[in-house]
Design a protein that fits this description.
- This protein is an alpha+beta fold.
- It is built from 5 helices and 7 strands.
- Strands 1-4-5-6-7-2-3 form a 7-stranded mixed β-sheet, covered by helices on one side.
- A hairpin with a 2-residue loop joins strand 6 and strand 7.
- The longest helix is centred in the middle third of the chain and has 15 residues.
- The radius of gyration is 22 Å and the shape is globular.
- The N and C termini lie far apart (74 Å).
Amino acid sequence: MAAGRRPAAALAVALAVLAGVGCGGGSSNTTSSTAASSTQAQPAPTPPPDPLALPRGVPDHATGPAQASSRRVIDGWLRALRHGEVKRAAHYFALPSKFQNGTPVLTVDSEIEREAINVALPCGAVATSMGGAGAFTIVGFRLVERAGGNCGSGVGGRARGAIRVEHGKIKEWYRLPDRQAPQAAPAPAGPAV
C-alpha cells in the first residue's frame, strides 16, 4: 500500500468512532463531586464545539442563481452515483477535498477515501433545486434508489447540501440541516364546540 493511503475499512472505523464520541456519559464519582461542590463552587464546564456543526462561512441558503458550470458537475456526479458508477462518481471529487455528511469535516486526500465517501451514500439523488451562494451551490435533493445501494425507506426523502465546485471538481460537500416546514399561523379562535 502506498504511503499516506488508508484503507476504506480504516475510514469506516474512524467514522464509527467519531460518531460515537459524546454519546456515552461514562461513570462519575459522586462522592468526590459532592465534596468538591460543598467546599467551593465550580464553574460550569464550557461545552466543546460541536464536531458536526457546519464550518464558518458555509452558507445555508441560496442568494442567487447557481453557476452553469457547477450545475453540470453536480448533475454529472448525481447521474454517476444513481447508476452505481462509484468510481466515476468519486472522480467528480477533487483531491484533496472536504466532505461532511453527519460526520465531522473529513479531508478526502486519496483515491480510496473519495470512493469510500461515495460508497457510504446509500441512496442516489436527483437535484430538485440549485441556487448560488458565493462560491457554493445550494442543492435540494430528492432521494432515489441507486444501483448497488440500499436506500430503503429513504426513497422519496429530501436532503440539502452546500457544494463548492472548483476547476470542474467538487472541492467541498456539506450536508445542510433539514429545513423545518414553516409553521402555519394559528387559526382564529372560534366558538367552542
